[in-house]
TrEMBL record:
Biological classification of the source: Bacteria, Bacillati, Actinomycetota, Actinomycetes, Kitasatosporales
Keyword Membrane attached: yes
Transmembrane segments annotated in the record for this chain: 41-64, 76-93, 105-123
Keywords: Membrane, Transmembrane, Transmembrane helix
Transmembrane listed as a keyword: yes
Protein name: Integral membrane protein
Length: 143
């Protein structure tokens, strides 16, 4: 179990580092770092900053789950809250990472949030394909 947990943690940290490198490369003129160590600090600080951002979004998620709006509306609102949480987490990370200077912090944060949203859409699409293959082209579950 410990090996599995360490493998999952390593995979998550590698994905966050890859995303951070992609956002940094895309916003090359907006982001200045003192060195490669700054990027590792950003990865290490992203998870606590993400937890802090999730703490702010948590009451909104609970309120949404308690309402009686349509299922599709709930899914869209959950997705919007997820993007907003990622946006806040990246903003927090930009401000607390030592050696990182960002000229317009909301632009890389918006890029990172959109990148996460695209990855989530891709993962859901792959899940739908896998589900339809395992059920012989007929999906028993509605999403």
């Amino acid at each position: 179990m410990t090996g599995l947990a360490l493998g999952v943690i390593t995979a998550v940290l590698a994905a966050v580092l890859l995303g951070l490198l992609a956002v940094t490369a895309a916003s090359l003129r907006l982001v200045e770092a003192d060195g490669i160590g700054t990027l590792f600090w950003g990865v290490a600080l992203f998870l606590p900053c993400n937890a802090l951002a999730a703490l702010f979004a948590c009451p909104l998620r609970w309120g949404l789950r308690l309402t009686s709006v349509a299922s599709r509306t709930k899914k869209v609102t959950e997705a919007a809250l997820s993007v907003a949480t990622t946006f806040l987490a990246v903003l927090f990370t930009e401000y607390v990472t030592p050696g990182l200077r960002v000229h317009h912090p909301w632009l890389p944060a918006l890029l990172a949030a959109l990148l996460v949203a695209l990855v989530n859409l891709g993962v859901r699409q792959m899940e739908r394909r896998t589900t339809s293959r395992t059920h012989g082209g007929r999906s028993h579950f509605r999403s």
